[in-house]
Amino acid sequence: MTDRPDHIPWFRKMLEIRLFEEKVQELFMAGLIEGTTHLCQGQEAVPVGAVAAMHADDVLTNTYRGHGEALARGMDAEAAFAELMGRSSGCCGGVGGSMHLTDFSKGNVGANAIVGAGLPIALGCAMAFKLREEPRVALTFFGDGATNIGTFHESLNMAAVWKAPIVFVITNNLYGEYSPLRSTTPIEDLARRADPFGIPGVVVDGQDVDIVYDNTLSAIERARSGGGATLLEMKTYRYRGHSRADPAKYRPDGELEAWKARDPIDILGGRLASEGQLSAEEQQNLRKEVSAEIDAAADRAAAAPPPTFEEIQSYVYAG
Amino acid sequence: MSTLAEPVPQVQAPAEAADEAQLTYRDAINAALDDEMSGDPAVLLIGEDIASDGGVFKTNAGLIEKYGPGRILNTPICENGFTGVALGMALMGMRPVVEFMFSDFLPTAGDQIVNQLPKYRFMSGGQCAVPVTIRSISGGTGRFGTQHSATGESWFMALPGLRVVTASSPGSAYALLRAAIRDNNPVLFHEHKGLYGRKGPVRRGSIAEVGKAETVRGGKDVTIVATLLMVERALKAADALVEDGIEAEVIDLRWVRPMDVSTVRASVERTGRLLVAEEQVHHGGWGASLISELTMGGVGWSAPPAAVSLPYDQPVPYSPPLEDALIPGADRIAEVARSVARH
Q: d(Cα B95, Cα B182) in Å, to the nearest integer?
């Protein structure tokens, strides 16, 4: 645990994601965000730890539950809020919305609303790097539910055959939409799904950002050095339901509380306090600071206009 | 405003001198791939069984020897997966050409073709381009049976962001495939497997204009619009109609999307009569859309527009005489054209 990057930015980033999504809830109630949102609260260690292990020129694809990876890769909260509010200043000009927080300038090359669709796309990025002999890696984030769709198996197979520089990251939050994993999937450890393709599969404690970072870094280094693909299974939990409409009443009593007892922000916060890096009081102050930034970003985002049809016409076809 | 008329990029005239050669349709495809691959290192081929022995239909002959396995990426059998791979490569600056062994397999990649390729640039707010060409091997007459004989040319025409093009001759196959590969948008390129052996003039270096139909025979009495194999059969029908004193104009529509309604309109304004010849059912196809566009725009019809399409509401059967009877022939096109012309 010695050569580790500074933890305080990680702590701050996890707070930012948590508070960003708190604000999303608030803006939804206020009618400033419409449609649906898929929150990742409780899972913050996965995007923060995994993204911290990436190089600036590595790329990722992710999913409709993608606020975490976008913010972890450095998307400005104002651009993200503006996107959720459908404003022209959003990261996708307001046409994408909550499910498509994409920013090519940060290597976020696609947040996808179709389960499993981002895996082969990330593999294509990885193959472009491999064919051009560039030392770059692609990561693809997806949920436990995606391990039952065809593109998961197709992509792992191709990646293994081609020894592609890619890391497959399952964010296993135990529910595929409204269905508990055990009701849709015959095994508990999804990392075992790497075995038939002859690539490593690793079960990772997704609540501990240090463990997420270490395992992702190993997988990325392996990919970058020509060792091929790895499947990482991040065991975690989402505090909210699948989407805006889901109160998650299907969860057994006590489950949410048990996971909250291992909250990823608290785990890192406890470590920072015990190591004397950031006291409980300093953490409270930081939370207030981040909260104020989030509020200000949301206010600025709300002031922007929606896009016009003239503006978005050029998004359909490239010249 | 036409709902199918989309802005198309300006096409620059090719720098190389155009010299004409007689090539088969198959060799014209091969020449277009070769010329694009030699001119641009970002162009590469992806698909099933494309590397060995020139591929299943031999369109890729000699390319693996010339460009190596890094430019001819042989894949497992997983269309949705490898189409997604092509999209990812395109995002990173490559220009993949994906081969679908049969158009009937396109729906197995339905998500990538419907939700990803055409929408990817749009939903990112224009942050990326998606220069992916899908070469789809289409059409009947080969005795390939129900699941290997569809043209599929109209299945994906309702998708903003996707271009759909059809090749009817060696010359058009060459120029259209080069245009498709050079376009910065996803293009679904249909070639007809019944035409691979046809020989015709190919202008090496020619690059077709996106969204432009080609009038392949002039005439004043009736306009016949066709694609793929139906163009050849419409031309044969036009020859036969001469004996009846009927001059048919034959238009190769080429692009199903964006559709060149104005070229057809200009023709129909002269002839007052239209016949669409399609190797597909009429319902929900490009012929129906074309007639709709023309009608909504107001045309002085001298006769109601007509369609020659698959005459029965059923998939293509294997039985050879039935397959032959189902797919429109020159005789049937001529017969319907006569009744339209004499209306």
A: 8
